[in-house]
Specification:
By secondary structure, this protein is of the alpha/beta class. Strands 1, 2, 3, 4, 5, 6 and 7 form a 7-stranded mixed beta sheet that branches.
Length: about 200
């Protein structure tokens, strides 16, 4: 978190990755744990799901924000229309990685920017191609436990980078926050205030 003349955003998240991205972009922020329970009904549309979760997270902490903008984000990994959430355990993570191996999946993030006067909900998508994975690749990735709490069972900013052949789109979206989308919205809605636009 950075002090300064800008009113800090209130980030509705405890994610260290999202905090690190905001710090990297020098966007002033405070963080609050969202009081929102995610429900992922089977067969749900991924875009609708992440947008709804982002909105729910932002709204759940809005009462703590005062006049400051609230930021809610939710991310999912999607392959063949199936949403991959956070693995329940190492076996679940291994199964996800086996399905993603040698294929291209989409990382979809919903983003909600909320103030007392308006609410914006948008999303961004990044395509991620995995190289074919051997049993040794899987074992190595699982041994480092980076799958814990990570949609799709990998962390592209860590050892998970070795699984990836190429990406198309916003890299930081895969890390956990659609930064290009956020910067565009801040530039449009708050020109100059957060250093953009």
């Amino acid at each position: 978190m950075r002090a300064g003349p800008r009113p800090p955003l209130l980030l509705a998240s405890t994610s260290p990755q999202r905090r690190a991205i905001l710090e990297q972009l020098e966007i002033a922020f405070d963080a609050a744990r969202p009081r929102y329970e995610e429900h992922d009904p089977p067969g749900a549309d991924a875009v609708e799901l992440v947008r709804e979760h982002a909105r729910g997270k932002a709204r759940s902490v809005a009462s703590e924000a005062g006049d400051r903008p609230v930021l809610g984000v939710d991310t999912a990994v999607v392959l063949d229309g199936k949403v991959f959430g956070k693995p329940a355990d190492a076996t679940d993570a291994e199964h996800m990685l086996e399905l993603l191996a040698g294929r291209t999946h989409v990382v979809v993030s919903g983003l909600c920017l909320l103030t007392p006067g308006w609410e914006l909900v948008e999303h961004d998508e990044t395509r991620v191609a995995f190289r074919p994975l051997t049993p040794r690749d899987l074992a190595s990735n699982l041994a480092h436990a980076e799958w814990e709490g990570r949609a799709g069972g990998y962390a592209i900013q860590g050892r998970g980078a070795a699984l990836v052949e190429r990406i198309e789109g916003d890299y930081l979206n895969v890390v956990g926050l659609p930064a290009a989308l956020l910067v565009r919205l801040l530039a449009e809605r708050f020109p100059g205030l957060y250093g953009f636009g």
